[in-house]
């Protein structure tokens, strides 16, 4: 697996991509691109897929090992779907550009052209040696927040370091 695949696998396994339990099949992939929704109707912003090379010896109803770059077995995927990806359409709809200077568009150009999906059996999460006390599952984050007694929680993502306006916006949002 690539580093991105490993992160995606971890988020699938821990519930960070809930309600997804595996890499997206074709139906979810197409609906997310067109409507930002899963087939179930749940809102979901971007495709979470597992790309493979067209030359890969992968067949339906077979199990494949998913390992990290050190060959640690992380999971087994029972392949129940193999389908064509559409990187140009995905780049345009999910990231707003086909410009290869965009890091995700550049990465997508190296993918193999096919996506696979199926039932995941996760054996272990990736190993980390830094920030261990901060690497919490979504359930553990909810439990920690509950134990701290916070009534309101604000999540905020930014592409650059927080500045005073961000801080003010979050403080005001927490009051609601």
The residue ranges in which pLDDT falls below 50 over 5 or more consecutive positions are: none
Total number of β-strand segments? 4
Secondary-structure class: alpha+beta
Q: Roughly how many Å apart are the termini?
A: 42 Å
Helix segment tally:
6
Strand percentage? 15-25%
Arithmetic mean pLDDT: 91
Secondary structure: helix percent: 25-40%
Task: Please describe the structure with a list of short key phrases separated by commas or semicolons.
four-stranded antiparallel sheet, alpha+beta, globular, 176 residues
Give the helices and strands, then pairings.
Elements: H1 3-14, H2 26-35, E1 50-53, E2 63-67, E3 73-84, H3 87-95, H4 103-108, E4 113-122, H5 138-148, H6 164-174
Antiparallel strand pairs: 1-4, 2-3, 3-4
Could you describe the 3D structure shown?
This protein is of the alpha+beta class. 34% of the residues lie in helices and 18% in strands. It contains 6 helices and 4 strands, in the order ααβββααβαα. It has helices at residues 3-14, 26-35, 87-95, 103-108, 138-148, 164-174; strands spanning 50-53, 63-67, 73-84, 113-122. Strands 1-4-3-2 form a 4-stranded antiparallel beta sheet. The longest helix has 12 residues, at 3-14. It starts with a helix and ends with a helix. The mean pLDDT is 91.
């Amino acid at each position: 697996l690539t580093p991105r695949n490993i992160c995606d696998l971890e988020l699938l396994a821990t519930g960070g991509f809930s309600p997804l339990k595996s890499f997206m099949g074709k139906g979810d992939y197409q609906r997310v691109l067109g409507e930002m929704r899963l087939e179930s109707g749940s809102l979901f912003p971007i495709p979470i897929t597992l790309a493979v090379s067209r030359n890969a010896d992968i067949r339906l109803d077979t199990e494949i090992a998913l390992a990290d770059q050190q060959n640690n077995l992380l999971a087994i995927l029972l392949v129940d779907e193999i389908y064509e990806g559409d990187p140009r359409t995905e780049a345009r709809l999910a990231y707003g550009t086909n410009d290869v200077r965009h890091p995700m568009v550049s990465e997508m150009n190296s993918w193999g052209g096919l996506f696979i999906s199926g039932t995941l059996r996760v054996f272990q999460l990736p190993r980390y040696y830094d920030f261990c006390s901060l690497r919490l599952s979504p359930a553990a984050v909810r439990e920690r927040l509950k134990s701290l007694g916070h009534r309101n929680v604000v999540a905020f993502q930014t592409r650059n370091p927080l500045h005073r306006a961000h801080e003010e916006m979050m403080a005001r949002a927490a009051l609601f």
